[in-house]
Design brief:
about 260 residues; mainly alpha; Endonuclease Iii, domain 2; Endonuclease III, domain 1; binds iron/sulfur cluster
């Protein structure tokens, strides 16, 4: 519990100095220009939101769990390899958009070998509806080659190894480690970043700050699903524009000063 530190009063001085005389200033008449100026706006009062207690954070995730005990990611995949490819393709794209393209792609290429056999030009054709598809097709081929050459065609199980694959960064590693291998990682996408900051659960200027902040406050028993609960909350309730605070499960606990309830 936070320790309350009271400011100490200055002890009464033994000798009081006489009050200083204030020089009376004669009020200057305002110039015409100054008189027409609008009064300066008072500085906006910013009150720091109350810090979350461990019990409140527990309550948030307990409510998410009760509402949706087994949350699922929305990126369609058939195995760890197709999950990896789907996450690489999802950068700056929606899950729905990625799924639309990968349904046909994964039907013909669900292993690194089949992807290589398909070739970069064909992969590009399958995914051309996704943003940055040229570069992404290159990465899918290059990461498939690396998986075959260095990892026996399997998706590796460590963050460093996953991050060494072309097109895969920290978020990709966190999603794959969590969804494919059940690790307690926290992938911070745009939704999780917004929810972490708005609610005050884990304020941060970068995804990494929010990730580490969330890992610090969320109890281990929720960590397997916490990333999905937060993504789904951001995607369907705590919308970027027009958050649906009136139907939000945690609106009584949320610290966002602009919440609408
Ligand atoms: S109360 Fe509003 S701002 Fe806060 S988490 Fe819920 S939807 Fe988001």
């Amino acid at each position: 519990m936070a320790k309350i530190i009271r400011s100490q009063r200055a002890s009464t001085p033994s000798v009081r100095s006489p009050p200083k005389k204030k020089a009376a200033k004669a009020a200057k008449p305002l110039s015409k220009r100054a008189a027409n100026k609008p009064p300066a706006k008072a500085a906006k009062k910013t009150t720091k939101p109350k810090p979350w207690t461990a019990a409140e954070v527990y309550e948030v995730f307990d409510r998410f769990r009760k509402a949706n005990p087994e949350p699922r990611g929305e990126l369609e995949h058939l195995n760890p390899y197709t999950l990896l490819v789907a996450v690489v393709l999802s950068a700056q794209a929606t899950d729905a958009g990625v799924n639309k393209a990968t349904r046909a792609l994964f039907a013909v290429a669900d292993t690194p070998e089949k992807m290589l056999a398909l070739g970069e030009d064909s992969v590009r054709d399958y995914i051309k509806t996704i943003g940055l598809y040229r570069n992404k097709a290159k990465n899918v081929i290059a990461l498939s080659e690396k998986l075959i050459a260095e990892f026996g065609s399997e998706v590796p199980r460590t963050r460093t190894e996953i991050e060494s694959l072309p097109g895969a960064g920290r978020k990709t590693a966190n999603v794959v480690l969590n969804m494919a291998f059940g690790e307690h990682t926290m992938a911070v996408d745009t939704h999780v970043f917004r929810v972490g900051n708005r609610t005050g659960l884990a304020p941060g200027k970068t995804p990494l700050e929010v990730e580490l902040g969330l890992e610090k406050v969320i109890s281990t028993e929720f960590m397997l699903h916490a990333h999905h609960w937060l993504i789904l909350h951001g995607r369907y309730t705590c919308l970027a524009r027009g958050p649906r605070c009136e139907v939000c499960l945690i609106n009584d606990l949320c610290r966002w000063p602009e919440k609408t309830v």
